[in-house]
């Protein structure tokens, strides 16, 4: 067995298995992106300014629309969403309906109704596959994948236990919510690099 394989196995054994409860007890509060995936602590670099601008545009548009109608709560990252004792994610934008606000405690304990993720160019798999699978498995009713690189927004809706693609929107098209009829954003206005 090579030294590299032995070292990798030794490192894997040494890495502690975290629960969200343990994480809160042992680590200080931080604004650094930090998620818990199957007991593994994943710390990422801060998002780029462009990523943050897109997330802010989404959060602002959704917040204004939801707030006018008193439909619930809209939050942005970093907000811990605890989906299981060993799984806590930080969506870029999330919405929780008024009737389900009981999941909001010191953190969010349960699936938001809607989640929006802005794709990072160096880790597209996380948003297109890994997070999508977790949100689907835990009952997030609507999932938006906002991809600045491809200049598009995908809207996925939960039908039974599985997501179905409601639509892929580009350019000047409005990307509409299925969960929140009447809410939409124009793709180019969200993704445009206007500073």
Short characterization:
The chain has 195 residues and is α+β, with helices and mostly antiparallel strands. Helices cover 30% and strands 31% of the residues. The protein contains five helices and 13 strands.
* CATH third-tier fold name: tt1808, chain A
Global shape: globular
Into which percentage range does the β-strand content fall?
Answer: 25-35%
Helix- and strand-based class?
alpha+beta
Q: In angstroms, what is the radius of gyration?
A: 18 Å
Order of adjacent strands in the largest pleated sheet: 3-6-8-9-10-11
CATH H-level name... which superfamily? Answer: tt1808, chain A
CATH architecture: Alpha-Beta Complex
What is the number of independent domains? 1
Q: What distance lies between the first and last C-alpha atoms, to the nearest angstrom?
A: 54 Å
What percent of the residues sit in helical stretches (DSSP H or I)? 25-40%
* Major sheet description: 6 strands, mixed
How do the SSEs run, as a string of H and E?
HHEEHEEEEEEHEEEEEH
The total count of strands amounts to 13
CATH class: Alpha Beta
Mean pLDDT equals: 89
| Weakly predicted, low-confidence segments | 1-11
Number of helices: 5
Present the secondary structure layout.
Blueprint: H1 3-14, H2 20-26, E1 34-37, E2 40-43, H3 49-69, E3 72-76, E4 81-84, E5 87-89, E6 93-97, E7 108-109, E8 114-118, H4 124-137, E9 142-147, E10 152-159, E11 162-170, E12 174-176, E13 184-186, H5 187-191
Parallel strand pairs: 4-7, 8-9
Antiparallel strand pairs: 1-2, 3-6, 4-5, 6-8, 9-10, 10-11, 12-13
